[in-house]
Structures are given as structure tokens and as C-alpha cells.
User: Fold these one by one.
Assistant:
Number 1:
Amino acid sequence: MRCPNCGYEDEGNYCSNCGSPLNQPAATAPEKGLRWYERCPACRAGRLSKTVSRGFLGLTTTESYSCPNCGAVFTREGSRTFKLSNISDTSRPAWRDCANQTLSDEEWKRIADGGVSDARQRELNLDHLITAVREGQIPPLNAAAPGSIVPKKGERLVATIPAVTLSEPRSVRETHGGGAGPSVRIAKGVYIRTGGFASRSESHEEIRSIDSGTLTLTDRRLVFAGQKRTTSVNLGKIISIKPCEDGIAINREGKQKTEYYSGLDNAVLRFSIEGRDYEEPLSGAFFARLIEGLLKTD
């Protein structure tokens, strides 16, 4: 069956490409001045009807809008916000994506016209940004602070992160042991152990903090300027990058031990996509994708 909204060939009750009902006419183009409840955001076909119910002694009122076509119920939560609180067919994409979500009337109207909520649009734009960055398409990110390092000729600052902790594996040796003979009482509360002393020594590695400072990424280098140590690594020397919860772990040529940089979420990533401005804490996963993308631009 061909979807009346997008033309995609599909089977079942709903289009897997756009989510429109396959047995319903396609939603018409957005009409200027159309109010959000004049087209149901769940089925894009019915017109919502308003209901006001009163609570005990009429002290409270509940305002809701229901769709006679799909049974969707939108309950007013604020002056311009409504929650999708119920629906007859819970397999509908609108319920799957927006069940019990409180959105503005503008968002519901956008969904009724075939769009998505602000939160979903944010997710889509972030996914788009990560994909573009990984492919080497680095947009202006506004994550670099001038004056963090002296760039070389033709070098471009990409990101500057303060208060980053540099950690490395360190060998730690522990000794365990004790007396091997019996104890003999020589006075009240005083004992002496006879025989030899047995002990064993064990060694293991622990990730320990080495220094703290500023981590700067350019289109050519990864530079760490700490209180005790300063390193400058050409991106081409990096062998592997592993994102961590709030940082990255890198292995590079000429260095046997893995270097861990944590605290990347101290920086804020600011970017714009299609006229929308976003501000997100920097993550280890995004920073790793950023380095991978820069390597592809060489």
C-alpha cells in the first residue's frame, strides 16, 4: 500500500517512513493561522473537541481536548502546554514518541503538520552534527578560547577545555604477611609470636592522576598544558581514541602507556543548525569524533 502522505510503499496500519496512517487521507499542508487543536497531532485527521471537568465542590477544573477519530486526549498542563495523556490505539507512532509528554501548543501544531517536538529536533540535529563531524565536516563550534596556546602558522583552534585531569596507569606494589608460629602469653594482654614471618608481594596497575591543566585541540595538534607537564601531540601520531564517560583515552606513537583526559564536560559546546542555536556540555564521545573528523581533513 502506498502512503498517502509521503508515497512510501508499506504494509500495516502506519507508514514506517513518516508514521502517517495508511488508511487515512494525507494531512493537508499547514494552514496559516490554524490553531493546534484544529488538527489532531496524533492522527493528523480529526479535529479536537474541548472538555472542561470540575473537581470536588468545583474548586478545581481540568481542561482537555479529545479526538473523535483516534481517541487521543490532550490535557492542559499550563497556559500554553498540553500533555498527551491517553489514546485508543497505543501502537500509533504519536503515542510511541510522545506518550505522557507535555509540549507547547506550537510543538503540537508542528507535529500535526508532520514535524517533531523541540526535544526530538534537538536529538536529530545532534545526530546530524556528530555524523558531519565524524566525516570531517567541522562546523564553527564556539568551543575554543583565544589565548590558550600560541597557534602555529595556519593552525586553527577548535576547542579549549579548562580543568582537565591527565591520568596514567601506575604500578602499585602491596605486601601482605604475618607471623607463622604460635602465640605465647607473657603477661596480661601481652603475647609474643614464635616462629618465622611469612609474606608475599603483589603488583598491579592503577589509573592515577598525574596533572591538571588545559587541554586544547587544534586542527593539527592535541596540547595539554598542566602545572607539572606540557605535551603537544600531532593528531597524526594518535593510534587509537577511546571515549570515556567524561573524557577520552588515547594511545599514541612513542608512548607506551595510555593517557586519560577527564573533565571534558567542563567545556560547553555552542553551535547552530538551520537557524537553531544549541548549547551542550562537551562529551568524551563527541571529542573523540571531533579528532577522528580532523584526521580526515588532513
Note: Confidence is low (pLDDT under 50) at residues 24-33.
Number 2:
Amino acid sequence: MKKLPSYHVRKARRTLVIAAFIAVSFVFMIGKTQKAKKNAKAVNVLERILERDTLIALTNYNSISYFSYRGRPMGFQYDMLTLFANYLGVELRI
């Protein structure tokens, strides 16, 4: 009988799958729905993030999006931003 992965492993795996889905959806939306001029602006923003090596984000402070538990930041949006910042190889500042 196979041993099931722990709750934390399943949660981390689910979070990564959701992050990948959001990232792919975001890239698809940019590629398909915006005109070339708007794409140039989006690329410019990404270039500025990469130049300063910092992703600065603003989010709501609540029990779902972003919160601090025992001094450690947590929340769905925080997890997504952390994964995106790690993907870009930049520091995250909230």
C-alpha cells in the first residue's frame, strides 16, 4: 500500500499548480488580448522590475490575501507573489 504524501506536501503541490495556472493564464491573456503598444508597456514594467531586482507589491491585509502569523507573512496573494518573485529571481517587497 502506498503512503500518501503529508498534508504540507499536498498543500505545497497544490499551491505550485495554482501558481503555474495563474502564470500561464496571465501570459496567455497578455499575448492574446492586448495590442502591441500595451505589450510594450508591460515589457517595460517587467524590465524595470528586473533592473531594480525588486518586485514591489501592494495587497490587502486580511485573513486570505496577506497576513502575519507569529511574525511570518502568509496568505494566498503572498504565496503567489513569492513564487512569481522567485521565478523572476528578484526580491519581494510588500
Note: The mean pLDDT is 79.
Number 3:
Amino acid sequence: IKHQVASAWLAHAEGKHEEALSLMRAAAELDDAIEKHPVTPGALLPAREQLGELLLELKQPVAALQEFETSLRSAPNRFIGLYGAARAAKQGSDRKRAKNYYGKLIALCRLADSVRPEIKEAEEFLANVNVKLSANRQN
């Protein structure tokens, strides 16, 4: 799986985007098919999340969101999965889902002792959405 993922990113870097997508989809399907032991930690970066990232790179946010959501069904509350889903929803102009995922990301990190850039981005997005909602209510 790791080899397929690396090959996919290499193909992407070389401008072979269809090949990259094909390789990454195959890696994601294989990763999904492998039975995970309940005690063993999951992959640091599952192939399905990397497929989502690749789709974002290729400016396909709707497809990316679908991949992140698929990943989140089997591995809920993963920081990278939530962040990827939020960005994909935002880029795909799905404010409702972006707000949902950014909100979950902030909730996940509410007890953290430092602020990551991803959390700042989430807070800024949510503040902006709330300002727009407030302005719309006044009109």
C-alpha cells in the first residue's frame, strides 16, 4: 500500500494526474480491504485520506469530500480526516458541512495545550460564517 501511495504522489508530481488517481484509488481500496486488528493502531495517514488530499490538489473538492467522509466512517474523529473534510467542503462551497467539520475539529482539540494552524483556520472560518449569518439576519 505504501508503495502504491508513494507511486501515486510521484505520478502526481510528474503531472500524470490520471495515473496518480488510479494508483491512489487502488491503494485506498486495498487499505480498506485489509482487516485491522482492534488493538493495533491504524495507519498514520490512511490511503483514503491521501486520496482525498490528492483530489484537493487536483481541484476536485466534491470528490475529495466523499473520500474524507468514507475514511471518517471507518476512523471517526481523526484530526486529518476532519480537517480534510472541512477543507473539501469549504472549497466545494458546502458551507453547512464545512461548518460541521470545522466545529468537530475544534471540539476534538478543545483540551489541547497549543493551537495548531488548522485550528486557527477552523476558528476563522467559523467566525466568518457566524458574522455572515448575523448580517443576513439583520437584513
Note: The helical segments are 2-13, 17-33, 47-57, 61-74, 79-91, 95-108, 117-138.
Number 4:
Amino acid sequence: VDLFVNFYNTVNPLLRKVLSLLVSFIKRPHQSLAGIGIAAFVRLMSNAGDLFSEEKWLEVVSSLKEAANATLPDFPFIVSGDIMVGSNDHALNSQSNEVSAGSDISHGDSESSRAQHVYDLLSDAKCRAAVQLLLIQAVMEIYNMYRTHLSAKSIIILYEAMHDVASHAHRINNNTILRSKLQEFGPMTQLQDPPLLRLENESYQFCLTFLQNLILDRPPRYEEAEVESHLVDLCQEVLLFYIESAHSGQASETSANGQTQWLIPLGSGKRRELAARAPLVVATLQAICCLGETLFEKNLPQFFPLISNLVSTEHGSTEVQVALSDMLSSSVGPVLLRSCLS
């Protein structure tokens, strides 16, 4: 990387190959090697970013998007039905202990072999999740260094990459069958529940940052309608996912005739999850309030059902209610008042 930077004027046509090499490291299912690739990528950008043309920056952000999509963590082996979680639970924990102790693992019987296979697949998924956290943080570091150098097109590509990560993490976190089976595996998974909540929250937050800054900065090739559409869609998506998550953990008592009598309060696990999601929801509500009077009023019919749902939803902390109160008094109220007076 340092040699490439020192002789950039001569070797800059090789940038695509250098980026491809670094991405190949990031794709490796080994956290240390992937970390080396990410660190080298950031170092290259830090030292050579000022020299890049817009065309070169497009190559850079496209490489980052490729790396993000290539390292998406997945757990298809758990939800496929090929694995009997309950029967392998003891074996999996045993295998985990043996691996951590560095001892040889016997593959003498099929159960032990299958348990080791599942352990390896889980380790790969956990590795990918860790790599993605490193990668999205590296993306933001590069973005913060060169925010003023990047065209709107380059930033939209970064947004798309981050949104791919966020939406994939949400699909994993929203898979109740997967979450249940991961819990059955016990502590050997060393995964929180939901398993990719931090990744989902951080990547969605970065998506929000990209779009809000685009509106503020208006860089070259900025298309207002496209960015505003992305922002409105993103805000709706975040609020909808939060509401769905809150309602998925809420049970109700019904009477003999089938009518709902009352909702059972959320459990402690679901409340912790919602509390972890709250800062993103607050940031989203604040972003909606900052859309501008015209854009806010135009999209209020789409937002209002979500806002109404949030008002009636049980939350894990008071942050969301406070943000909702601010929104209703400062943004929604004046619009409704004007409509009543007109």
C-alpha cells in the first residue's frame, strides 16, 4: 500500500487491481486476515484519497460495496431443517470446549462430525458479522475523511452498500425460527438475541447520516428528488421495522368469545431489544422533522399511520416517547392546525 502511494503518479492505472486484492482479503472467512485487508484499505484511502479523481472514487466505493455484499453473515444451515438442535446441544458445547482448548476432535461418529460441522458454520457466520462491523466502521472513517471529495453518485453507492448490510441484518434479526434455534444452541454461539442487532442499528444509522449530509452538502451530481425519496423511504422502513419488532413480542389475553381483553406487557428481553433500537428510532423521528415544511407536509399521510402506531406501542425506554412528543408539538401539530384553518 505504501509503495503504491509513493509511486501513485506512475502506478495509478493499477488501482483497480490493488482494490481487488484488498477486497479479496476482506472476503476471507478469517477475522484477522479480513481485518488486515480493511486496515490496509483505510490506510490506502488515508494516504492517497486526495489524489483520486471522481472516476477513481467510484472504483473505491464500488469495491467497498462488493466487500459488504460478499461478507453478509447468514445462517441457512440452522433454518434448513437439516440440523437437530436439541440432540446436538451437548455435543456442540463439548466440541466448542475441545476446540477452545486446542485438543483433537474425534470424528468417529456421525453425531460428533455433524456437531463439528455446525460449529464451523456458526464460527464462519460470527466471523462475517464481526468483519461487517469492522467494514462499516471503516466505510464511515473513509467517508468522514473525504466527505467533501465525494460526488453524490459515490455517496449513493455507499448508501446502497450500507443499506444492503442493514436490511440483511434485519432479515436475520426478524427470523423468529432462527433466533429460537440459536437460543437452543446455548452459550456456545456467544451471540446476543437478536444476533445482528448492533450491525443492523449501526448500518441503518450510517444510512441516515449519508442521506442527511447529502441534503446539507449538495455535492456534484446531487439529485434532490432521488435523495429525498431515499430518505423518506428509509425513515418509513426504520419506523415500520421497530413497530413490527415491538408488536411481535406482545401477547394478549382474550375472553371466551375471542375478543381481546388486554395486552400482556412486554418481557424483559423484548424491552432490552427495543431499548437498543430506540436511539435509531429517535434519530429517524428527528430526521423526519428536519425534512423541511413542504416535504414533511407532502409525506405526512405516509408517516402518520406509523406515528400513530408508535404512540400506542409499548417501548423499552422513554426516549421514543419524548421524541414523539417533540415531533407532534413542533411538526405534526402545526400542519394539522393549518389544515383545520384552511
Note: The beta strands are 252-254, 260-263.
